[in-house]
Design brief:
The protein has 267 residues and is mainly alpha-helical. It has one domain. Helix content is 78%, strand content 0%. α4 runs antiparallel to α12 and α5 runs antiparallel to α10.
């Protein structure tokens, strides 16, 4: 790792990361403020909840609406879908700028003119990305705990603590293949589109797997098969198997990106 590259990477992107963090905190504040009203309203409409379309609920990461469960509410309103979109956008925007973006802007040539190996450049910038992913995940967990407690919700401290490594590893898994696309494609826009398309494919694949046993077997090869935030929030247990597999996704993606970048002709 090259500390100079890492410091430059963090200094260039801390502003954007702060915007994402503030956006997440603001959104959490909004949905937790609404939760007491939601809880009362939904408790009075229990029959309506039973008839709610199951497919739509599964799209947001739950199988039913439990008005009394803050974990269930936060999964529907945040970590089951919205947070995934935010994290994917953050990661894809960061990785598109790491290789293809720097080549397009001409900064990669200047960087490689220094006495630093290519793999160290990616490792250093990857460390910066890891810091960004971890920061947004911590902001999410701390925000949910703080604002949930402020509005008298029954917050699972152990659940959100257990969610931290799962959220970080999901971000790293998305970063792995996003960085690979950035290494393979010279146009950063195409790299971002490819990463977005694959992320959307994995999410739709996971959704459809609820209805097809054939697709369910294929879903094992998608990142969202290993992302079940509600079960983690409810149990308070760290999903070690899911974390290891998501880390494997990340390692394969980063490893392949480094291999491609080592052989890439920088013009």
């Amino acid at each position: 790792m090259n500390l100079t590259v890492l410091r430059k990477n963090l200094s260039d992107r801390w502003g954007g990361t702060l915007v994402y963090a503030l956006g997440i905190m603001g959104y959490i504040l909004m949905i937790t403020a609404v939760y007491p009203t939601f809880k009362k309203t939904m408790a009075a409409k229990s029959q309506l909840l039973k008839n709610y379309p199951k497919g739509l609920l599964q799209f947001f990461g739950v199988r039913n609406i439990d008005a009394a469960s803050f974990n269930n509410y936060m999964t529907i309103e945040l970590v089951g879908f919205i947070w995934v979109i935010i994290m994917a956008a953050f990661v894809i925007a960061w990785t598109r700028a790491m290789i293809s973006g720097e080549i397009r802007d001409g900064t990669m040539e200047l960087l490689l003119a220094q006495p630093v190996e290519r793999w160290k450049v990616l490792v250093s910038e990857g460390a910066g990305l890891l810091a960004g992913i971890a920061a947004l995940t911590v902001v999410t967990a701390v925000g949910a705990i703080a604002f949930g407690s402020a509005f008298s919700a029954k917050v699972s401290y152990a659940g959100f603590a257990a969610y931290l490594p799962l959220g970080i590893c999901l971000g790293l898994a998305i970063a792995g293949y996003s960085l690979l696309f950035s290494a393979l494609l010279d146009d950063p826009r195409r790299a971002a589109m490819a990463a977005t398309g694959l992320t959307l494919f994995f999410y739709v694949l996971h959704f459809v797997s609820q209805y097809s046993s054939v697709v369910a077997k294929i879903d094992w090869f998608g990142v969202f098969h290993w992302y079940n935030p509600l079960s983690v929030l409810d149990s308070g247990n760290v999903p070690v198997k899911s974390i290891l597999i998501l880390l494997a996704f990340a390692a394969v993606g980063f490893g392949a990106a480094i291999a491609v970048f080592q052989r890439k002709d920088i013009k």
